[in-house]
Predict the 3D structure of the following.
Amino acid sequence: MRFVKMHGTGNDFVLLQPQDEGRDWPALARALCDRHYGIGADGVILVLPSQRADVRMRIFNPDGSEAEMCGNGIRCLVRYAVERGIATPRDGRVMVEALAGVLPAWVETEGGSVRRVRVGMGVPRFSPAEVPVAAEGPGPLLELPLEVKGWRLSLTCLSLGNPHAVHFLTTPVRDFPLEEVGPAVERHPLFPQRVNFGVARVLDAGRIELRVWERGAGPTLACGSGATAAVVAARLRGLVGERVEVELPGGPLTIEWDGRGEAYLSGPAEWVFEGTWLGGDPSRQGS
């Protein structure tokens, strides 16, 4: 099985272009993403034809669960699709179909190569039913209290096609015990579809630092939708402007949101290597 490894700001993915979708992708994702016995990745992306857009993506987390979308993953998918001739930008734009809907992505090229991708992340949604979160009220929920692992959290909850909860700190995010608190928040009964959990600190009106525990993946070097959610949450509180650089462990991402409409994510997408998976197909073992 041929594969390509790519990353967006350290958030790494295995990309496959299957001839059919008739496999146990959750089992295969668990095998491919394993960093000791597999290729190692934060997710597996299937590059597929679409009847609604230029290209379709399915993305599976390391635990085998399927995600609605992924901002960093879309950037990698778009570069793959453009440079492999699968999709041709029209007026610099490629349309991507995901479980969350059809999303636009604009490419910046240099010498025939895609250097940077700007993704339309959709209009943030705030009603508890849309996140979803087991709370009352119309939303947005800006200070939802939650106590886990001895920490009293104040969460801002929203959806970007996938669920997010953001907690703001006044101390450096590196000092927060994300590996301990993150899994407890992700699987808390408040979140019936689990949740991506971000801890953020506002540095000034144009900069945020952030770490994210991703649903189904754990701590990652970067999370595009998590970075977008953090900026949206900060802007709802009046802490940042319309354009914000988010500093993540894997590097910076740029988020734009005017406070009303669609949010935008910009960042690089990089090739790492390509090869052939010889580990077998877990979905077909024993058949």
Summary: Residues 2-120+269-281 form a domain with the Diaminopimelate Epimerase; Chain A, domain 1 fold (CATH 3.10.310.10).
